[in-house]
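Appendix B, Record 12. Input sequence as logged:
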Amino acid sequence: MGMLFRPLWGISKIHATPSWTLITAGISFIVFGVLYFLADIKHITSWAKPFAPAGRSTLTCYLIPYIWYGIVALSGTHISEWMKSGPFGVIKCLVFASIIVLLTRLFEKVKLQLRL
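Logged structural output:
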């Protein structure tokens, strides 16, 4: 449906177009179905162990990037535009997310966790 609405409104996350909403919802349903099949039906969960700290210390993992962004803003450092988009931007995001999960794991080891 999202691709059918694309000619009318385009695909824009910022403008929350119906096509963007439907495409991301469709992707989410597919990913959920695959994860449900792997984890709940086939009981294949070992692939998720690297992500476990993000699940156990969700609030810590959520807040670490905001601390990093504050440090970067105070330092006056800027990232080039080509590093924020395209294939390099995707790789940068994956590396950044991995570092955040690793930091969360390190914080767990030293018993530093945020709790509600």
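The mean pLDDT is 91.
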